[in-house]
Amino acid sequence: MRSSHPRHHLPLIALPPQTHLPFLLSSQFILYWKPNKNAMPHLLRELSQPLKASSATEISTSIDHEQDRLRSSTVIMECRLDSLFMHRRTCFTYRKEDWITFLARSFRDMTVHGKKSIMRRRIEWCITRFRGVESTTGFRHDPDTYREIILLLARASMLNHARCILLDDMPDRLVPPSEDMFASLIEGYGCARIPQEAVKIFRRLPELGVTRTVRSYDAVFKAILRSGRVAMARRLFNAMIAEGVLPVLSTYNTLLWGFCLSIKMETAQRFFADMKERGIAPDLVTYNTILNGWARAKKMDDAEKVFAEMTAAGFAPNSISYNIMIKGYVCSGRVDDGLRMFSEMGEKGLRFSEKTFAALMPGLCDDVGRAAEARKALNEMAKLQLTPSDKSIFLRLVTSLCESGDLEGALEVHRKTSQFNHVVVDPMQYGVLLESLCKGEKHESAIALLDELLEKGTMQSPQYPTLEPSAYNPMIEYLCDHGDTKKAEAFFRQLMKKGVDDKVAFNSLIRGHAKEGMPEAASEILTIMTRHGVPTDADSYVLLVESFLKKSEPADARTALDSMMEQGHLPSASLFRSVMVALFDDGRVQTASRVMKSMIEKGVKENMDMVHKILDALFMRGHVEEALGRINLMIMNDCTPDIDHLLITLCDSDKATEAQKLVEFALERDCDVSFSSYDRVLDVLYTAGKTLPAYSILCKIKAKGGVVDKKGCDAIIKSLIAEGNTKQADILSRILAGKAPSRKSGERVAMDAF
């Protein structure tokens, strides 16, 4: 609801162009107009003017002047104050000092936050007030107010609103349109790159009762030439002459601008000559336009002729003329001539601008031999506090200096980059410097530059490209080789966020962590590589395994060794041995046995002494089946162990059962075992009271044609009889006497003994 406070009236203040827009178009203020014929056109006319900077004193002077001129008008301001403690509207009146403070602050905020979206919303609010002012105040719009609102909408590219007001609203209200209104709309369509609509509006002017003059012709020429419609512009020019409308200087300037924009220089030359024939004297704009056309066409000889003609005609070339010539020379590869024009420009006291350096710097920065001159030009820019429009010149200059070997100069340019306003250092510039500094072995400077890059966090921004491998790999490798792998990993993890999965960098980090005695961190990197499918390096695995072994962590070393083989790398025999020895010494015999199994499967036949130690330990610990499985694997891979040695070791340790199983395995596989070893096993079995197992082995030996000790056999026969196994004793006696059945029957008899 509205406040019950009475409305306070103030004289209408026609605000100056630089201050009115933030205040009058703000959605927090509502303007109530009393009927006044002069108020609305003046407001809209002020709204259509471009913003200009102004001081508080100028604002105050303008306000006093307008108060004296328009005391008959009044305005009511209602300001809505929303806060945690107030939820109502409060009407109040500003004093003069408060007006100045508020308007200055509004202008400052508008300067900082004047974006197109904000402007569009405020102009939409202005349209609403334009349409609603008649119903709320009784005011009636006239051609002046319509002209101003159409101009405002056309400049804001709100062409449909402008078209509806011009073609629908004005005829309904019987307000006659003017050529200026249509020219503004045509220019708007040209800026929006819609030339067909501009031509349609232009052709409808006669039927709408508007006489076409130079004003509308100039507007349509500019609209169609923005889109390169050169042929259409020529036909329209001929129609203009036929219609009796004589071209003026602005017409030829517009046409020449369009022809040069499309680099149709022959056409431009004909119209330039026609212009002189009609007695229209070219001005400085005309010459600069032709000059720009020849420069764009990279025909600098013709541009020089125009430049000389301009001087002869009494026109002193200005900064724009020199900027055009410099850019033309540089684009044509004539940098020396561009430098000559630059020096001449300074001698004549002409002001250097951003465009001057934007034209000159590309030619200097891209040439390695002119890097020193480019640095001088850059220093001049910094001295004049000019910010280049093309921010890439810093990267290009740094690249040229690095290629020429001037690394100190490149670093100086890099440091100077941050001194320019609105210039953010390109991450690629860091990449070029890092690569060059590492190649030049200036690693300390490279590390300082990397610290700066990591501190700024520039790489994390998605709008910046990723560094090249040639830039970050040498840096990471140096850090990893010199004990600073932690910083290298922090650097590379930022690159990983940008999608970098570089094999060289990953392996450098693994080697660095391994050398620094941090195998856990190296293992984490290795896990990331495996998850991302990045190919690994065998040397990195070797360092990782050795790092775990140095920390007396053989189990982790064995895990790393397994991962190494899973990735398709073949460990060396020495690496296998190191892991097996570490596991064996740590009491992890079965784990060492698994490593031994992997080694044998990979075809590595060295380290047989370690293999026998592991087999002995397995037998001694009672892991007979596992030991026999390993022996069987060795036999299958043509790597037969020394079974005699194993049997003797078991017999010396009184491991009768283990020796029995090993002998039976050897007999089944037809292993080469000496008969003395068999006799040794039989003695151990007999001593241990295992008569039947000894009888079985003896039968198998004889069935294979082996020779045994007769005294030992007699002892076994006596033991069998004493135990009541007379049948087995009889069979054994007949076998020893040479009356035994066939070999197959003998094996069956021996098995039946159990």
TrEMBL record:
PROSITE patterns: PPR
Superkingdom, taxonomy of origin: Eukaryota
Keywords (A to Z) from UniProt: Repeat
Stretches forming PPR repeats: 213-247, 248-282, 283-317, 318-352, 353-388, 426-460, 468-498, 502-536, 537-571
UniProt entry tagged with the keyword Flavoprotein: no
Domain Pentatricopeptide repeat-containing protein-mitochondrial: 514-629
Alphabetical list of NCBIfam families matching this protein: PPR (TIGR00756)
Family according to the record: Belongs to the PPR family. P subfamily.
Protein name: Pentatricopeptide repeat-containing protein-mitochondrial domain-containing protein
